[in-house]
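Database export, one record per block. Field names are fixed; values are copied verbatim from the stored entry.
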Amino acid sequence: MSSLELDELNGDERPNAIQSFKHDIERRYQRLLDTCSPHWRRRWTFTLFVFLLYFLRVFIWQGWYIVTYALGIYILNLFIGFLSPRDDPEFSGPSLPTNASDEFRPFQRRLPEFTFWLKTTKAVLFALVLTCSRVFDVPVFWPLLLVYFCMLFCLTMEKQIKHMLKYKYVPFSFGKKHYGQETK
């Protein structure tokens, strides 16, 4: 048997130009993500800038309210995942220490901050691309969508805050505590 026939039997195919190009793009994309990972202020500033571009486009052209509503619902869902603990104490029991002898476990999110940022940025960029086509500009009475979204946001956040108070967890850390200079 020739080596070509053996490769076909083993299921190994030599990478063609398209696969090689795709692999190169994926590698560059992952390198970009790895590079920007520790720079959270720059990442969120970029996302805020893209948000402003999107909202400016929606405001000037007066359209794409359904796209904006769907974007808001998606980001609200991501935000709830960001605020929620990885192991829900409602189903797995309390994981935080309840007395001084218990072991301390730091808060672990269901959706890490980097993933939250990445998915939010991708969603806003996708919504910005959708605004390039009038197909997605469905005529709708936007004040009704706004009121419905605000109600949904308030009810969801009320439920999340009650959950946080019931199981006594705080999803935010404010870094290492710093003390004043020692007096001599």
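Remark 1: The helical segments are 3-10, 17-36, 40-61, 65-83, 89-92, 113-130, 142-167.
Remark 2: DSSP finds seven helices and no strands in the chain.
End of record.
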